[in-house]
Design goal:
The protein is an all-alpha fold and about 270 residues long. Helix content is about 75%, strand content about 0%. It has twelve helices and no strands. The radius of gyration is 20 Å and the shape is globular. The model is unreliable at about 5-10 (pLDDT under 50).
Length: about 270
């Protein structure tokens, strides 16, 4: 009888609380794992700094001034996207290689709740690169970075991380059928840098490219960060980034259900 009471209390836990606990535990666990990975550490910190340095040198040799501030925050968000695109593309493949995919799929919780924290943790790891990039721009290149609204800036960064993590979730479930999923994720790294306006203002891009930019959450995330840092109003951009993240999540769950149903029928879940 003593053991029955805790079990009954556990059964009465609301589904939303159970889901929140799964997401929080999954996020913390995978973030710790990636923080101890030398590959993820190099990918998330050092690699984006190379590109940020090139960008700073180009902007300093050109317009300078406010353009360097524009490039600084754009290069900082580049690190978040770089940490997500390549790794998220092969997130399900890695579980398959490790022999844990079947266990995760058969767990008593929707597989989307297991996979989403993984990709959001990948995006959060990019905060290392973001911090390093901003420090590089301030102390190496002497860029006087504005931080007019620190609270709004913190919310904008969180919204950017979550929305990019949701985009990574969509990439993970869309690329699972390809053996070179990591290469497909890597392929998207550089086009998104350009199309999302990380280093080039969207006004300078061809008109036909701009609608593509509007459906990419990183576009609105970097705009929100720049607006908050400069003292503007970042809330519409934050809302659009989170709304797009929710759309990615809905589409990703639908794709995931299709992929898992097909794999169960064909008995190919564990096949590499």
């Amino acid at each position: 009888m003593a053991d029955a009471a805790p079990a009954a209390d556990h059964d009465r836990t609301s589904p939303s609380l159970r889901l929140a606990r799964v997401l929080a535990v999954g996020f913390g666990l995978h973030l710790k794992m990636m923080m101890r990975s030398s590959f993820d550490g190099f990918l998330g910190v050092l690699w984006p700094l190379f590109f940020a340095t090139i960008a700073f040198l180009m902007f300093r040799a050109g317009a300078g001034g406010e353009s360097l501030v524009f490039a600084s925050f754009g290069a900082a968000v580049m690190g978040i996207w770089s940490s997500t695109s390549t790794s998220a593309g092969s997130a399900m493949q890695r579980e398959r290689w490790h022999g844990t995919l079947e266990l995760l799929v058969s767990a008593p919780v929707h597989f989307a709740a297991v996979l989403l924290p993984v990709t959001v943790a990948m995006s959060a790891l990019g905060l290392y690169s973001m911090t390093a990039t901003l420090l590089l721009s301030r102390f190496v290149f002497g860029v006087d970075l504005p931080f007019e609204q620190p609270v709004a800036l913190a919310f904008a960064i969180v919204a950017t991380v979550v929305s990019i993590g949701a985009m990574g979730f969509l990439l993970a479930v869309s690329f699972v059928r390809y053996r070179t999923a990591w290469a497909l994720g890597n392929l998207l790294e550089y086009p998104v840098w350009l199309i999302a306006g990380f280093l080039v203002p969207l006004a300078l891009l061809p008109a036909w490219v701009r609608p593509i930019s509007w459906v990419l959450a990183p576009t609105w995330g970097v705009d929100a960060i720049r607006e908050a840092a400069s003292g503007g109003g970042p809330w519409p951009e934050m809302g659009l980034a989170l709304a797009l993240g929710a759309v990615y999540l809905v589409i990703g769950i639908a794709v995931l259900e299709t992929v898992l149903s097909s794999a169960r029928r064909a008995g190919s879940l564990a096949l590499a």
